[in-house]
Write the structure tokens for this entry.
Amino acid sequence: MKKHKSHSRVLMPFKENGHSHKKCLDSALITAEKTCLARGVRLTRLRRRVLELVWGSHEPVKAYDILDKLRDEHSGSAPPTVYRALDFLRAEGMVHKIESLTAYVGCGEPEHRHIGQFLICRACGAVAEMDDAEVRELLAEKADTLGFHIDREMIEIKGLCAACLTENI
Ligand SMILES: [Zn+2]
Ligand SMILES: [Zn+2]
Ligand SMILES: [Zn+2]
């Protein structure tokens, strides 16, 4: 068995309640601006605002909730423009779609392309993201034994985060 070093990183840990979320938000917006600049794509005002709304917390946000908020701000915000902005942010890796919840969550490291694995707390709704090559390789290997080729991976695991677990004891 050859043993190679796989990277395993936590892209977004579970955040403690009452942490300074403004810092998360500010750093997400700065990273988004830098990343867009480096890639030669535009972070328009709408895209930036949508990103800001997704980053309102560490819980996934539904597209229609974003739309509702934008409608309060500008009466002309049409669903297609919001969906297009979300598609852009997804394509650039700045947000991820949590398929099981049809909701979006911000990514802490959009500057590195990755396919993350998500841990979703069923009590508080918070999401953590890992980028674990070992998990991906193992799955690919197992699928391969069934002659199956993976072309789209969604790993979304539900449970309780540490904070909710202590509360539930
Ligand atoms: Zn935060
Ligand atoms: Zn990510
Ligand atoms: Zn929780």
